[in-house]
Write a structure and sequence with these properties.
This protein is mostly helical and 165 residues long. Helices cover 74% and strands 0% of the residues. It contains six helices and no strands. Helix 1 packs parallel to helix 3, helix 3 packs antiparallel against helix 4 and helix 4 packs antiparallel against helix 5. The protein is globular, with a radius of gyration of 16 Å. It starts with a helix and ends in a 10-residue tail after the last helix.
């Protein structure tokens, strides 16, 4: 039954990412709610479930975005794989540090991938503006992740003796 709630949560995240968050756009930055969800699911639940969520969200977001196919999916899958590796290595993932670092790293990777796709198109790069937008996006993604964490924890309740991986 928990998988049904995870599907609903992933569907709501997809809807928010494509329909609601682009309307908000503080200072032209669209927050990345999907990244926070897959990181939290990978740290709180099974890696296989997080990988399925990452593939589904990534593929859907890549299709909707109309940009270079694979940027969303690749970033989300990479975030799940790193989170699962960290969890299996025995590090404490119950605090705020590991999810925050993973969301920040995922935000930077995704932004650099998007910027690298624009290298041949843009003649002049306003570095100060780009760094400011990256910092704002990191802060927004951390805020969304912190709001999403109690929902994910309630959705994915570990059972006694449940193996993760």
């Amino acid at each position: 039954m928990r998988w049904l709630w995870l599907v609903v949560l992933a569907g709501l995240t997809f809807y928010a990412q494509v329909a609601w968050l682009p309307l908000v756009r503080p200072l032209g930055v669209v927050p990345n709610l999907a990244l926070g969800l897959v990181v939290l699911v990978a740290l709180e639940g099974r890696a296989l479930g997080a990988l399925v969520v990452a593939l589904a969200l990534g593929c859907g977001l890549d299709i909707i975005s109309g940009g270079n196919f694979g940027i969303w999916m690749g970033t989300l899958v990479l975030a799940v794989l790193v989170a699962a590796w960290i969890r299996r290595s025995g590090l404490e993932t119950g605090g705020w540090l590991v999810p925050a670092v993973l969301v920040l790293a995922g935000t930077v990777v995704m932004t650099l991938l998007v910027w690298s796709a624009l290298v041949g198109v843009v003649a002049r790069w306003p570095v100060g503006s780009l760094v400011g937008r990256l910092v704002l996006e990191c802060l927004l993604n951390l805020g969304l992740m912190s709001l999403l964490r109690p929902v994910v924890r309630r959705t994915i309740k570990p059972e006694p003796g449940d193996l993760y991986g």
